Amino acid sequence: MTLPRIVSREEWRAAREELLVKEKAATRARDALNAERRRLPMVEIDVGYVFEGGDGKATLLDLFAGRRQLVVYHFMFAPEWDAGCRGCSAFVDQMGHLAHLRARGTEPALVSRAPYTKLLPFQARMGWTVPWYSSRSTDFNLDFRASVESDPAGDATGDATGDATGTGDGTGGGTRTHERPGVSCFLRDGDRVFHTYSAYGRGLEGLGSTTSLLDLTVLGRQEEWEEPRGRAAALGAPAGGDRIRYHDEYDD
User: Average pLDDT of the chain?
Assistant: First the structure.
């Protein structure tokens, strides 16, 4: 293994400042990309998906828990599996306290094809509090490309926005369903629900923190400096540092 060169403090500082220029450029590029993402068009959802969760049956609108935005993590857990995906589990482990997302009108949720009777004990084992729902009786996973079908030769028939990973249950017609992790974002306007963004595979790298998840949504972090202008006050809350509090001091 080749380790970094050993240099003086002055040489290290000069090299660090040179790299900092590139890091700041990357930050500005990321801000511009996030703004472009927030300008994406959206699609109204007119399918009556019915999920199963801790309170029984739930519609997609119910998953918002009354908030303006919903961020769904497509958790790989096929109906015949006895435990959830290890990679997906690591993703959920790194999510911060949910109060910080909810304070910005954004509800997180996990959705898997496994029956809720399997999700509940695994959730208890992992010690997670993020709401988890089973989509087994719907086409939600297929519609949002979190599950893709392949023919017996293994050629996936899903879209090209990410690779299918893992193996799910066999389906009719000689096809086989494959699971893949993903994130889908939704916006609520009254009782109308809109799909605004999805990402899969390597598109999930670096996600998990409050700000990284908010950056995927239409309303973003709701800070005054964000583009497009005017969305910072979308929830009627103050922008800037006053928005961040101890997680037990937020008003729900």
Answer: 87
Mind listing the pLDDT tens digit for each residue in 172-188?
A: 445 678 899 999 999 99
User: 204 φ, ψ to 5°?
Assistant: -95, -10
Here the contacts of 167-176 (C-beta below 8 Å, separation 24 or greater) are 167/78, 168/78, 168/79, 168/80, 168/113, 169/78, 169/79, 169/80, 175/149, 175/150, 175/151, 176/149, 176/150, 176/151, 176/152
What pLDDT, in 10s, does the model give residues 22-60?
Answer: 999 999 999 999 999 999 999 999 999 999 999 999 999
The torsion angles phi and psi of 87, rounded to 5 degrees, stand at -65, -45
Torsion from C-alpha of 197, 198, 203, 204, nearest 10 degrees = 100
- Which token pair is 75? 């958790």
**pTM as predicted:** 0.85
CB-based contact 159:203 (threshold 8 Å) = no
Is the CA virtual torsion 246, 213, 111, 187 positive or negative? positive
Nearest to 215 by CA among 71, 26, 68, 109: 71
d(CA 50, CA 38): 28
